[in-house]
Amino acid sequence: MLHLKFSYSFTETPEAQHQLDNPLFDLLAAIHRTGSIAQSARHLGLSYRHVWGALKKWEADLGQELIQWERGKRARLTGFGEKLLFAEQRAKARALPHIDNLVAQMEREFALAFDPHAHVITLHASHDLALPRLKEFMAEEAKLHLDLQFRGSMECVEALSRGDCLLAGFHVSEDRARGSLTQKAFKKLLKPGKHKLITFLNRQQGLMAAPGNPLAIKGLRDLVREDVRFVNRPTGSGTRLEIEQLLAAENIDSSRIRGFGDEEATHLSVAAAIASRQADAGFGLAAAAAQFGLHFIPLLREQYYLACLKETLEEPAIVSLLTLLRSRRWQGAIAGLAGYDADHAGNVASLKQVMPWYSFKTRK
């Protein structure tokens, strides 16, 4: 059995996108994607000889072949090599939010150790692929330290109410009608006049399926088929709320969906489960599907907000953050993330402007 040993090092610039990298799996992923040892070597900035030698060494160490290759044909991973790659991707997708949380805690303590007056913004946020980019962008552009902790959407807003964070990141779909599940989840947590919402990003969510969509999944009603295995997000997450709201609108009984109770913590771990053939479909971000080369069926647009107390908007660090979010440089920082746009990023809105039910007077 292989054993793991973790360590950490200091860097001059943030490297949130490069946690838990390993040369073996970089090689396997490149060959799986390109079907060519030569192209993989060029992509990784290595020589053909180095890549070939490294693969042979790993095969000797592991006692099994990793690739199948003949001259004139595409290189491909063996069954063992593919299984190994998918296992690493799935495990890493599950672990990365916890690793990111640990890194954030340590970086915060080190930042305060060097400068007790450092501008540290504590953000508890629903999982999002752009947030690590925001952390790096803030550090480079304004010397702001983002203490980023990933949580479920409702848990984040609850943490804001307790004073555990300065900002709470959550997302809601465009379906926010009175009586919706969105209203039931958020109305009791956010208070008009007390909280404000900062627009962060717009995202696209939908169904993810295996590359090429071999089961011909076209929409929500296909999820009740006996041959479709679903993988879900946890209760309390904004994405779980959205899929349940979509199913309710279509009068689809979730108990008929095979695997509806099987949960993965993040969009990436859902995508990894589908890529590794542990499931056939899941609901999540277009960007997560694109990262794993999955088929994607768009179902809704949603807005991601950063909630805060009204008085927090006057703090210098938050004023700087708003300026950064409104810049074209931030637009460029998220370029390449499928299904994302930063239209209106940095705009501040009241709850009544964003959540229509706050405009109704409630009976005493």
From TrEMBL:
Residues 27-82 form the HTH lysR-type domain. It holds the Pfam family PBP_like. Residues 135-325 form the PBP domain. One of its GO terms (molecular function) is DNA-binding transcription factor activity. This is Putative molybdopterin biosynthesis protein. It comes from Noviherbaspirillum humi. The lineage of its organism: Bacteria, Pseudomonadati, Pseudomonadota, Betaproteobacteria, Burkholderiales.
